[in-house]
Amino acid sequence: MTRTKTQTIVAGAIHPMRTGVANVTHKASKSIPAKPAFARLIGTLLLAAGAFASSAVAQNTSNLGPNVYVFDPSMSTSQIQATVDSISNQQISNQFGTQRYALLFKPGVYGSAATPLNFKVGFYTEVAGLGASPDDVVINGSIDVYNQCDSNGCTALDNFWRSLSNLAINVNTPNFGCYSGEFWAVSQAAPMRRVHITGNSTLMDYCTGPSYASGGFIADSETGSIVNGSQQQFYVRNSNIGSWSNGVWNQVFSGVTGAPAQSYPNPTYTTLPSTPVSRERPFLYSDSDGTYKVFVPKLQKNSSGVSWASAGTPGHSRSINNFFIATPSTNVEAINLALLFGKSLILTPGVYQLKDTIRVLYPNTIVLGLGFATLVPQTGRPALTVTDVDGVEIAGLIVDAGPVNSSALIQLGCSRLRDLDDRFGFNLFGNHASNPSSLSDVFIRIGGATVGSATTSIEINSNDVLLDDIWAWRADHGNGVGWIVNTADHGLVVNGDNVTATGLAVEHYQKEQVLWNGSGGETIFYQSELPYDPPSQSAWTDGTANGYPSYVVSNSATTHQAYGLGIYSFFNQGINIIEDNAMTVPDKSGIAIHDVGTVFLNGSGQITHVINGQGATANSSNGGSLNPVVLYP
Questions:
Q1: pLDDT tens digits for 296-347?
Q2: Which of 36, 167, 274, 604 sits most deeply, having the most CB atoms within 10 A of its CB?
Q3: Which pLDDT does position 174 carry in this prediction?
Q4: Rounded to an integer, what distance in angstroms lies between the CA atom of residue 186 and that of residue 178?
Q5: Sorting pLDDT into bands at 50, 70 and 90, what band is 19?
Q6: Is 592 buried (19+), middle (13-18) or exposed (0-12) by CB count in 10 A?
């Protein structure tokens, strides 16, 4: 059921909330010539000043935007059940729709042993507790994702864009038959964070076949036994787990108590005792007075286990008054003026058609999306840029490429300054190791939902940036899909030094999926499918070799580490497409790649080598089998 206003649910009643943000319009010329960035900023200030004074300053900060539902423990289970079921019934099959939802639970207990709360989570739905600790919100029941079924059977391969966070689940599924336990059968862009599960969990839906699943992300969570099952790859970070079953091609653990021992490639477990550097994503919560705040976790180094055990997560709180709360009808001029005046930003659920870039200027700014808020640039400019400053945190967003090609969709640090820095050694970029900027649960799409193109999806020019749960996807199905339609060269280009990626998936781009130019980079877990649709070998060659390697560390990098990488092929045009190497790196003493493998999924052609001429060929003769290289060099 589509709703156009925020609904807050309290004490058994549903009340529309005011939007609190004016729909600002301006009598500006429709044809504005391109301007330098500073001139565009001045124009933005002039356009937005009046609007900000009348709407942003007087903003109703208790409003969390359209399609945010806030549940109170005084509500009856039946009323909550009816509401969440109506949303899941709409969203379970709504893969490329425009509806977005956040289902937020205030501190308290929901459901009981006799009357559990059990519901399913569909596309573009965020389910989160509003406590300071996961144990402040307790669900007696289950919050599930099951297979989707069509003529090809039932799988979880397309179960994207949904999340579960900051609550506890006492698993209770009476009379559910096969569906006994907590089911979270997902693939990419479906993170589970800060969740405490008492009882058994499964990451595959084994109740309907063939039950394939293709990768997921768990962080800062505590669980009982986990059935991994058919998950081709999965990453778990800084968690406590009871047990883990099955491996398939690429299972990676860092800082996980209870993780299986290192054993790649048999089984395919890559296990690091700690995570070198991490920061849990910011989250919304409600204090004892019912006032909304945003908690900002502290940077962790060489950490393991959950952040919230015993004394709670280290970090600090920010008042909701420090945030500008935008809806899809908010003009980007007003958003940028709020950021200029020092506000952080909450983007409430919906699709934001951007006529200009959202510009983050100051250190420690938070940009937090609720309910998979989605940015779509309309003019060929980036959706979001960040200046080279400390501690900016971007979390919970989808960015779709727009109708005019963007050189980059998200950019941290100025590319022109990076070019000058690399050419002349000016040292223009700062050291942010003590307070890095981060992207958490940020998902990119080139096509699929809408027609669009972008040369590079994410460009990192700043140093010390953290990437935590990233999926950059050039769509292989949906709207606007085709070799000359949803064009995109790279999913991720890293020019900064000492950038760390924990949980990185980049798929189907037309050149290198990942191009890593900076030194000191580190990746823990990488998943990649090569483009399905090269129309010929000549259309997909870098000029010196067949095809483009998926993950390239360039010769400019002096050091690089990577752990747990899976790269797969499915050339589906009936043409014998060849990739010479899935990965290439310079042969330098500071370069080490651990546990990388290739798999031929289906189709035609082959991946001839895994890395730098080493590793067995992946083709139809060994389809579905892993071709591993345990250590290079």
A1: 999 999 999 999 998 889 999 999 999 999 999 999 999 999 999 999 999 9
A2: 167
A3: 95
A4: 18
A5: very low
A6: middle
pLDDT band at 20 (very low <50, low <70, confident <90, very high): very low
Residue holding tokens 């589970």? 192
C-alpha closest to that of 105 among 134, 78, 65: 134
Asked if residues 237 and 260 have their Cβ atoms less than 8 Å apart, the reply is: no
Could you list the active site residues?
529
Query: CA 147, CA 309: separation in Å to the nearest integer?
Result: 33
Q: Collapsing DSSP states into helix, strand and coil, what is residue 127?
A: strand
Here the tokens at position 164 are: 């579960």
For residue 607, the one-letter residue type is I
- Burial of 587 per CB tally in 10 Å (0-12, 13-18, 19+): exposed
Give the mean model confidence (pLDDT) for residues 124-135. Answer: 98
- The H-or-E segment that residue 125 falls in is strand 125-129
User: How confident is the model over 61-85, as pLDDT tens digits?
Assistant: 348 877 999 999 999 999 999 999 9
Q: Residue 16 is encoded by which pair of tokens?
A: 């529309």
Total residues belonging to the chain:
633
Calculate the dihedral angle through the C-alpha atoms of 36, 38, 39, 43, rounding to the nearest 10 degrees. 130
The whole-number average pLDDT for the span 147-170 is 97
Reply yes or no on whether the pLDDT at 540 is more than 70.
Answer: yes
Contact 557, 515 (CB under 8 A): no
Give residue 267's pLDDT band: very low, low, confident or very high (50, 70, 90): very high
**What token pair was written down for 67?**
């399609």
- Location of structure tokens 């907590």: 182
**pLDDT category of residue 40 using cuts at 50, 70 and 90:** low
Per-residue pLDDT at 577 exceeds 50? yes
Task: Spell out the SS3 assignment of 420-438.
Answer: HHHHHCCCCCCCCCCCCCE
- CA 293 to mean position of chain CA atoms: 22
Q: How does residue 535 score in pLDDT terms, banded at 50, 70 and 90? A: very high
Structure confidence at residue 28 (pLDDT): 34
Are the C-beta atoms of 237 and 255 separated by less than 8 Å?
A: yes
Which amino acid belongs to residue 605? G
Cα–Cα distances in Å, from 97 out to 90, 100, 487, 520, 552?
A: 10, 8, 22, 40, 34
Q: What is the DSSP string of 380-396?
A: SS-SEEE-S-S--EEEE
Residue 14 has pLDDT above 50, yes or no: no
Q: Buried (b) or exposed (e) across 72-84, using 16+ Cβ within 10 A?
A: beebebeebbebb
Instruction: Round to whole Å and give the CA distance between 84 and 77.
Output: 11
Instruction: Give CA–CA dist 307/294, Å, rounded.
Output: 16
Alpha-carbon distances of 399 from 41, 251, 356, 383, 409, rounded to whole Å? 22, 27, 14, 7, 7
- Distances in Å between the Cα of 524 and the Cα atoms of 252, 256, 428, 499, 560 are 8, 13, 28, 12, 11
Pick the closest to residue 321 from 22, 18, 63 (CA basis): 63
Strand order in the sheet with 283-286: 283-286, 292-297, 315-319
Cα–Cα dist 385/456, whole Å: 13
**What's the mean per-residue pLDDT of the chain?**
91
Tokens of 510: 């037309």
Which structure tokens are listed for 374?
């989605």
Is residue 606 a contact partner of residue 627, using CB atoms and an 8 Å limit? no
Look up residue 142 and give its amino acid: S
Q: 207 and 190 in contact (C-beta within 8 Å)? A: no
What is the pLDDT confidence band of residue 417, given thresholds at 50, 70 and 90? confident
